User: Fold this.
Amino acid sequence: MLVSCARSPISRLCLSCVLASVSLVPDAALATAPEASSVKKSEKTSDPKPVSTRPLTAAPEQINVTASRRNLLGRAETASEGSITAREIQLRPAYRVGQILEAVPGLVVTSHSGEGKANQFLLRGFNLDHGTDLATFVDDMPINGVSNAHGQGYTDLNFLIPELLSGVDYTKGPFHADVGDFGVAGSDHMKLADNVPRQLALSAGTLGDYRAYLGGTTHLANGDRWINAFSLSHTDGPWKYPDNARSIKAATHYTHGDTLNGFDVTGMFYRGQWRATNDQPLAAYSEGLISRYGSLDPTDGGFSERYSLSGHYRLADDTWKWVTSAFVSHDRLTLWNNFTHYLDDPVNGDQQQQDETRTTVGGSSVYSRQDRIGRVRTDTQIGVQGRYDFLYVDRRHTRQRVTLSSCPSSLEATAPYLCNADDINLGSAGLFIQNTTHWLPWFRMVVGLREDYQGGTDSNLVDGSLTRKRQWLFQPKGSLIFGPWKKTEFYLSGGRGFHSNDFRSVSGSYASDEFTKGSVKVPLMTSAVSGEVGVRTTPLRHLNVQAAAFIIDFDSELSYDGDAGVTSPGPASRRQGVEFSAQYNPFTWLEFNTDLSIAKARYQAKNLANYGIDGPYVTNAPSFVWSFGIIADRGPWYGGLQVRWLGGYPLVEDNSLRSKGYQEVNLNIGYRLTKTLKLEASIFNAFNTHAYAAQYAYDYRLKTTSAMQSGATGHPLEPISARFSVQYGF
Assistant:
């Protein structure tokens, strides 16, 4: 791997970083220090047996195991799923909290609009915008926002406190019966720990970022655990008009019993506000209107608030398990964005305010059991999931965050001060069953069936109309797994999935001219069919490899509408691609990992003109993602290095305008002064790459007197920066 790594400039860069990082690890003792890690050896085993509920008579030995992903050979349902350990989350460098998910192979998490806003996600040739087609859960609570003010499936992870995470389980493709809406490209399930060390942490960075964290676990006499955590943060960034992003987060998590029998209750609170430097027209840079980190409208920004209450109740016996969860969350969101500047309103500009107030209730109940019919073992899951969203959402025309009485001509409205305003009630329910039958020692079969229902009402507060819609969608899925033979398994997977559409596009509350004319009908749920063939193998000791080839056919592609600032349904599309991942642990304290994803995304429909599209290329769909990483933990030293390369992608459908993507190197190094005191230093964009973290193409007008232009926009990647932290355990 390292020999071939040196053949290209970026790879030589990777190799030099690897050698530099390894040189920081002292060559003292080969013996592992017991205090170097809190990860138990039993957490890394590939033994599929259930965890015993009997109390331990002695504390398990603590050893230093550095591993990014658990070995799922013999247990996985597909070639592309995986489980990320808490150790990788702790050791990987991450500039922003959402980049925790870049541990998922092939997933890129970036930003195009300030630190308080939801991140932009890219996976399997999808520009997932702020989360569409990537189903995200925190302790089984769905995070994607349906019919969101800014984009369908909007996924804001800024409320997370990273110290509370115990790992991430992820899937790719619509092959798992327990994953419904937004799960076509993939899903991630972030898990909260039921025990975290008591710790005070303070950090400061060179881009005006500061953070304070206080948290820990109280162990009660009956064995229950009570976690409390609190965090304050501030970030300016390199921008001419500082983000001044401020946030306050708090969480409490109470656990009784264990992972098989017991219950837990979790409360979370988050509040943040910020100024945003959105992606700016490249012409504004070249014409000298703004500097590299400047903005044509420094009043863009946002406010977000979220609080939730959730919990689980678990029952289990030797052959069965029943897990029931429930949650309620309340969110408020306001965004000020000026995408097109003076295009629609040459006098006041095109800034718009998007508001949302949402209350969501929901939950799930899943019954699992193991049975034997003769020599054949079967594992069965039966579950039901549901949520109901009560939300108010609107859009207003503003100037420097002050609401104007009318909308531009392209956003006509009959009500003063409102471009759009809707009261939406939307319910969804999914019933699924999945069975895994182990027919032979070398062959098992997974069959899943899922039925989803969505229905709701949209009360249009601008024209007074009321729309009712409902839809059912049946989704078969499954896998055939052959092996293991010599620690190798082969997978063949297929299935149907879906993403829901913004209810306002279904009802016509907002629409482009084409939708208004009725040439395109928008369903509540848009289905996709996907297939995957892959392999999971351990060809050498301590080397784990996964590879998969996939195809995804979507009935309708969701794309970002820069004029309206929302996602809109588009024509049918197809993606074909291959993925490769490998992790090598030459020692218990050291891991090398690499991920490669190549995808081709094209529109398939013949009537592209109905959607205002003049070419087959899916815009903003990356064709290439590569990463290389190291995580190390030996003696008092620990840390991680991550090299990521996001390849180029088309900005317009005829591929005449493209983004080059970007390459970035991040590094994290820590040293334990004592058992309770640690120092860390992180370097982001270590080689000061001048690139754009995200790019789009819009029509825009730069000044009130300018002519209309069409061209690329960009949000610059943050320059080289450093962050220093001190952590004290007590």
